[in-house]
Amino acid sequence: MKRQKIVPDTSVLIDGVLSRLIQKGKLKDADIIIPKAAIDELQAQAARGKDTGFRGLEEIKLIRKLGEPKGIRISFKGERPTLEEIQLAKKGRIDALIRDVAAQEGAVLYTSDYVQALVGEAEQVKIEYVQKPPLERITLDEFFKPLTQSVHLKTGVLPLAKVGKPGEVKLVQLRKEPMKEEEIRNIINEVLEKARQEEGSFVEISKAGALVVQLGNTRISIAEPPFSDGLELTAVRPIAKVTLEDYKLHEELKKRIVDRSSGILIAGPPGSGKTSFASALAEFLHSQGKIVKTFEQPRDLQVGPEITEYAPLEGDWTKTADILLLVRPDYTIFDEVRKTHDFRVFGDMRLAGVGMIGVIHSTTPVSAIQRFIGRVELGIIPAIVDLVIFIEAGKIKKVYELGLTVKIPTGMKEADLARPVVEVRDFETKELEYEIYTFGEENVIMPVKQKLSPIKELAKERIYEEVSRFDPKAEIDVVSDEQIVVRVRTDAIPKLIGKKGKTIEKLEKKLGLRIQVEPKEPTLKHEIPWDWEESGAYVILRVNPELTGQQIDVYRDGEYLFSPFVSKKGRIRIRKKTETGRKVMSAILSGRLKIRA
Fold first, then answer.
1. How far apart are CA 344 and CA 317, in angstroms?
2. Distances (CA, A) of 448 to 404, 435, 452
3. pLDDT of 332-345, one tens digit each?
4. Which end of the chain, N or C, is surrounded by fewer C-beta atoms within 10 Å?
């Protein structure tokens, strides 16, 4: 009986087709001729850390092991490819060398590559096109339950999963036996196989030691040495698809987003539900007649086929942006804005007039804005970002709107201190909560305290009740609608102020007033007038030049700060980046700095 001659190509070796045929008893008493071009290509892939190369080489070892008892002989023939031919593998050069071996040996070419099969038939090479049976369910699916957000598998470690709704997530153990490397390898092979078979699934990132696969709505990240200390697989999938109605979005905010092109940041800590909200917002905008596109890597937004998802073109978001500007979308969702280059692309697109929605990691709403500072000019931040939506535990916790104005920052008094100020206001109440401006050489974000209740509405007896426990004979002076001076015995001052000012701070919050503490007994020093200016990295306090050489005391209300000596021309220079400098700046901006001499 004539022995069958078989030439497998790289696709068949990678997929493990021949070893399965041998195990099922469908292949025996055959000569398997492996082209040298195929083995060199697999070696090149393995050297680059590609999983496909390792799988193909392991398949050759397995064929030899399984085939010997069944009369299967393995040989290696054909020309070895040159470096240029290996580099041209994607253009079909290696496939051509493999077909040449099959033709010369009069063998049947086994392939899982449809194009290779077509070309082989055109060249009158005997072809066995092996269509892989579709995988209906893979092992990884068994680890997921209805409320499972993510599954974490690592060699030698118990399998874990995060289960629960946003804000109620728990880390649970899936079984009592640790994962074996062989188990995880099999799961990876199934994932890659299904990604090749399933429409809409693909390998997103493939690097030495790292692989990211988008399998339907599941994002699978694979890491192995030397990139990680062990083989690891993490699979993440959304637990539910939500609509914008589920977030009970303010009607005015909906109208604002639809009626005008905006720059929106969707901020929040990891796992808070930012991507789910971005998906819901994309679907809502599409339903309102807007052309919506996305920037994603990996592509895991849950959006309909009408919304095109873009990856970096040739690894560069700038090139994607160039193409997208020709498409002219109304809104582009950027998931996620992380690197400095991402911020610049986001800004360029927004300034070009495209509505931009950026997903960004941050622990507070204002820290999301802060991530733009230094990456783009301060004055154009409101032109790039005019809304910040903060998501926490799957709910909208805060919405800010940004605007630019020229004003004297809150806490400053002199008219010549006016400067461009970015105002951060609560979207619903319109109350000013933060100001961003340049102070010296630094950009600062200052919280703005709302005006306190007028002191006239507070009974003097009520204030006395609070401070009399420190000194029954305390004297209370009304300085303004917002400030009082409390005079107590000298020995009572430390108790009233408390350690690090905590007691007086609590009292101020309770009464809603600023309290200045002074001794009842006359002191040698008294409050003097002062002025200040900025000079590079320093803040300079100016007092009467006659005080040159004398030591003065600087306070923040009743809190002692330091006692510097006055230099020439009545100047005291403090470096702004020191702890004392920061306290002095804070006292100046809040109008609480006092100098006594």
1. 10
2. 16, 7, 12
3. 999 889 888 999 99
4. N
pLDDT tens track for 486-544 = 888 777 777 887 776 788 888 877 776 777 777 766 555 788 999 999 888 889 999 99
> Which residue type does 459 have?
A
Handedness of CA 178, 183, 189, 194 (dihedral sign): negative
- Cα dist from 308 to 159, 168, 312, 332, 491, whole Å: 35, 32, 13, 10, 72
pLDDT per residue over 145-158, tens digit each? Answer: 888 989 999 999 99
Q: Topology of 530-596 in CATH?
A: Immunoglobulin-like (2.60.40)
> 167-170 long-range contacts, Cβ below 8 Å, gap at least 24?
167/272, 167/392, 167/393, 167/394, 167/395, 168/393, 169/271
Domain ranges across the chain: 4-129, 139-236, 244-447, 454-519, 530-596
- pLDDT of 287 over the 70 cut: yes
Is residue 442 within 8 Å of residue 538, measured between CB atoms? no
Query: Encoding tokens for residue 23?
Result: 């195990």
Class of 139-236 per CATH? alpha beta
User: What pLDDT sits at residue 156?
Assistant: 94
b/e code 61-95 from CB counts within 10 Å (16+ = b):
ebbeebbeeeebeeeeebeebeeebbeebeeebbb
Query: Tens digit of pLDDT for each residue in 538-565?
Result: 899 999 988 888 878 888 877 767 778 8
Q: pTM of the entire structure? A: 0.57
CATH architecture of 454-519: 2-Layer Sandwich (3.30)
Check: CB of residue 387 under 8 Å from CB of residue 427: yes
- Report the C-alpha gap between 278 and 299 in whole angstroms: 13
Give how far Cα 569 sits from Cα of 288, 540, 566, 573, Å: 66, 12, 8, 12
Name every residue whose Cβ is closer than 8 Å to that of residue 206 and which is 6 or more positions away in sequence. 50, 212
CATH number (3.40.50.1000, 3.40.50.300, 3.40.50.2300, 3.90.226.10) of 244-447 reads 3.40.50.300
* Percent of the chain whose pLDDT exceeds 70: 92
| Torsion (CA) 349, 350, 354, 359 in degrees, nearest 10 | 90
As a whole number of angstroms, the distance between CA 156 and CA 150 comes to 19
Longest dimension (CA), the chain: 121
Supply the pLDDT for residue 414: 66
| Domains 4-129 and 454-519 are alike in CATH topology | no
Task: Return the HEC string of 328-397.
Answer: CCCEEEEECCCCHHHHHHHHHHHHCCCEEEEEEECCCHHHHHHCCECCECHHHHHHHCCEEEEEECCEEE
The C-alpha angle with vertex 561 and arms to 465 and 482, in degrees rounded to 5, equals 40
Burial classification of residue 423, based on how many CB atoms lie within 10 Å of its CB (0-12 exposed, 13-18 middle, 19 or more buried): buried
pLDDT at 454: 44
Residue 390: pLDDT band with limits 50, 70, 90: very high
